[in-house]
Amino acid sequence: MDEALLNELGQRLDAIPDPAGAGGLVANGRIVGLTEKRGRIDCVVEAPAEGAAAFSALVPAIKAALEAAPGVKEARVVLTAAARTRPPKRARLSEAATEQTRRAAPVPAARPEHVRAVLAVASGKGGVGKSTVAVNLACAFARLGLRAGLLDADVYGPSIPLMLGLTEAPEHRDGKLIPLEAWGVKALSVGLLVDADQALIWRGPMASQALTQMLTQGAWGTADEPLDVLVVDLPPGTGDVQLTLVQKTPIDGAVIVSTPQEAALADARRAHALFQKTGTPVWGLVENMSGEIFGRGGTRAEAERLGAAFLGEVSLDASLRQGGDSGRPVVADQPDGEAAKAFMEMAKALAGKLR
Ligand SMILES: Nc1ncnc2c1ncn2[C@@H]1O[C@H](COP(=O)(O)OP(=O)(O)OP(=O)(O)O)[C@@H](O)[C@H]1O
Ligand SMILES: [Mg+2]
């Protein structure tokens, strides 16, 4: 967004008094997201945990203030409630135990409407092919006749738009964000909501808000035609960002992607531990880039050690990289190839887990 518009909108928002204290909405840090795309404004307002009602009443005024700014065609205001920062006092718990309780029992994640199951694809290590697996699994579910969606939660490097060949910004309708469609899969990505140069400011709390918005306000399905499975491409790593994301997302099951090398396997173990800590079922491990260079079979052995299912292996194969770069996932574009067959087998095994 250009600076003049940002200033204009900032002033308008700050002229609205914070219902929960002295000062304007901007000064009090209530605006946690503000983006513009072709005259459409997305504004995320965070209300304190107590007092959301007063903020709710304010939404039309915020929308009107934004829409009155020159050059603005439409504004959408999303209200989110801040998590309570402190857990209820428990006198007998030590500080460390209290912290652990807080982490283990987060604010319940809001379930997306009309979505039967959320399947997260994760990896401890970056670059192991997590997005490739997420995209092809989603396409494989679609080929099995399931209603499949794909949410790109990788705020560090959203790659789903490129891999599915999507460039358009999603439309808003009736307060919902309409997912784009490619290869029979409904998709939303942080990469579609922001310009590349704006992506930076979305990392951190705003990124997490954007995700919640795409998850809970995406028009993924309807009462008559609910989505059977929403595949979520998580960012790589097992740090605090990932932990928060996992806790804030209502994940029914996780798939961990690894390459056969020991370094990647060690990170896969960490990802497995993260899911155990948050009580998320791990539905299985996938070995990607199996073959001569990296070896083969390490992930299957690791799955056995962890007591997790092994879902299959995908060989190192140039068609996968070409498919990803050109927005033509191999499962949809080269369905008779070895890689497509491997993904179809994984999807069949996972379909049994979906509710
Ligand atoms: N089996 C494979 N054979 C050949 N190339 C592959 C294979 N799997 C993935 N790739 C390529 O490797 C690169 C990294 O894959 P991808 O983006 O899916 O990994 P990622 O784990 O999502 O990475 P990041 O951590 O950056 O999100 C991409 O260029 C992709 O096309
Ligand atoms: Mg990725």
TrEMBL record:
GO function term, MF aspect, one: ATP binding
Superkingdom assignment: Bacteria
UniProt key word Metal-binding: yes
Gene3D superfamilies noted in UniProt: P-loop containing nucleotide triphosphate hydrolases (3.40.50.300)
Keyword Metal-binding recorded: yes
Binding, ATP: 124-131
SUPFAM superfamilies: Fe-S cluster assembly (FSCA) domain-like, P-loop containing nucleoside triphosphate hydrolases
Name listed for the protein in its UniProt record: Iron-sulfur cluster carrier protein
InterPro entries listed in its UniProt record: FSCA_dom_sf (IPR034904), Mrp/NBP35_ATP-bd (IPR019591), NUBPL-like (IPR044304), P-loop_NTPase (IPR027417), YlxH/NBP35 (IPR033756)
Complex and partners: Homodimer.
Region of interest: Disordered: 88-108
Transmembrane segments annotated in the record for this chain: none
Keywords linked to the UniProt accession: ATP-binding, Hydrolase, Iron, Iron-sulfur, Metal-binding, Nucleotide-binding
